[in-house]
From TrEMBL:
GO terms for biological process: cellular response to insulin stimulus; cholesterol biosynthetic process; SREBP signaling pathway; SREBP-SCAP complex retention in endoplasmic reticulum. It is found in: Endoplasmic reticulum membrane. Signal peptide: none annotated. It comes from Labrus bergylta (ballan wrasse). This is Insulin-induced gene protein. It is a multi-pass membrane protein. Mediates feedback control of cholesterol synthesis. Residues 1-28 are annotated as: Disordered. One of its GO terms (molecular function) is lipid binding. PANTHER family: INSULIN-INDUCED GENE 1, INSULIN-INDUCED GENE 2 PROTEIN. It comes from the Eukaryota. GO terms for cellular component: SREBP-SCAP-Insig complex.
Amino acid sequence: MSLTLTAMSDSTVTSGRQQWSGSGQTLQPPRGPFISVITNRTTNLLIRGAMLFSVGVFLALVLNLLQVQRNVTLFPPDVISSIFSSAWWVPPCCGTASAMIGLLYPCIDSCLGEPHKFKREWSSVMRCVAVFVGINHASAKVDFANNVQLSLTLAALSIGLWWTFDRSRSGFSLGVTIALLATLATQLLVYNGVFQYTSPDFLYIRSWLPCIFFAGVITMGNIGRQLALYEYKFIQEKSHQD
């Protein structure tokens, strides 16, 4: 009787193995619906994009509030329509730009084959955000002798932010490129009367504005890289558990 049961169990195990292996390929057990969703590349991009957009909108509301309170930027009365004293189109534009930057940085790292490994933890990202807010706060609150001194100070702080939390050549190049494009777009907006800067010293804007854009690009790039790394580790852990 025991021999019969042993033979039956061996045949069951053998048939089970045959179901999981065929033509020299080993099939993985089916994954649950949650794992199937989060491991989908398109879904991951949408989730990360939504999170980056939310962070960009929040930072735009807070930081633009500092600029408006100090009368650094002036919006016409008919376009001010929010409790944060900001034009309605500023947060969505900043959120969209943040999502694009945050998604672009990991893609550039992947294309160059140079994964960013410097200070890859959330505590470092939070410190980077705090330093960026501090740089923006300094541009609005701290009084300097002249605009040249302010611009040089913010430039040094922005480069220090990149050196402390990034140190990648791709991050620096992308930050400079996007900062220049954003400065040009701001020049066009001011030229067309959408808003204006008080005491402009660089054509229609303030000379320190590219430094703020550069620091913002580095900050959102770090957030995007960390989100991509976190999701990759999460997917790997869930796949191993299954």
